[in-house]
Amino acid sequence: MSELPGPQGQTGADQNYDYKVGPFDKLIVDVMGIEDLADRRVTVDGSGNISLPIAGVVQVSGLSLGEATNRITEQLRAGYVRNPRVAVNLEQSVSNFVTVDGEVAQPGNYPILPGMTLMRAVAAARGATEFARLREVVIHREVNGRQMIALYDLAAVRRGAYADPVLYPNDIVVVGDSPGRRLFQQIVSVSPLFVSPLVAVLDNNN
User: Fold this and answer.
1) What global pTM score does this model have?
2) Which of 24, 82, 152, 203 has a CA positioned 20 to 30 A from the CA of residue 50?
3) Which has more confidence, 23 or 4?
4) What is the C-alpha separation between 153 and 128, in angstroms, rounded?
5) Which CATH number fits domain 20-92: 3.30.1330.40, 2.40.160.10, 3.30.1950.10, 3.30.750.80?
């Protein structure tokens, strides 16, 4: 297997996915020509619903933004709005996130949006630390109910040697540690104790 499949086993071009709205996500709903629905900010409640004038309560959890747009459009038509022109955009993701851990400046959970990739996730975590081993970056993912991992060379991805892998909600990214560089830093920190030149060779893989 040359690549880590998506959560449903999809590979290649099929790895692109539509963001699915979840509880507590923040959306912007805009309906042209209706003042009460102009750039209206709403938060999905714990049951997966939003409440809008005319449309009423709309179930949006589990829908893509396009599907949510269609559902709101249908309910506005049911409320006697003729040919509503609806746009739904994601303002803030709360329900979908990726975990970035290991040798990054700010480990933690980060909202995942369509198009999130490995490089973008590491950048969101304020980049790799000086001790990061970029050749050992691991992505953990559940694929069809099985836990799978894949090892990536982030330096090679940055050079364009191969594609920047797409991430999915609940992925865990772990940036490896370079013991050699860490040891060298520790040695340098006590170097005033040495009375002769300090020479060290670092393995290029570290």
Assistant:
1) 0.72
2) 82
3) 23
4) 13
5) 3.30.1950.10
Question: What's the 3-state SS for the chain?
Answer: CCCCCCCCCCCHHHHCCCCECCCCCEEEEEECCCHHHCCEEEECCCCCEEEECCCEEEECCCCEHHHHHHHHHHHHHHCCCCCCCEEEEEEECCCCEEEEEECECCCEEEECCCCCEHHHHHHHCCCECCCEEEEEEEEEEEECCEEEEEEECHHHHHHCCCCCCECCCCCEEEEEECHHHHHHHHHHHCHHHCCCCCCCCCCCCC
Is CATH 3.60.20.10 correct for 96-183? no
Question: Which amino acid does the sequence have at 63?
Answer: L
C-alpha to C-alpha distance for 203 and 178, rounded to whole angstroms: 10
Q: What is the pLDDT of residues 43-58, one digit of tens each?
A: 999 999 999 999 999 9
Residue ranges of the domains in the chain? 20-92, 96-183
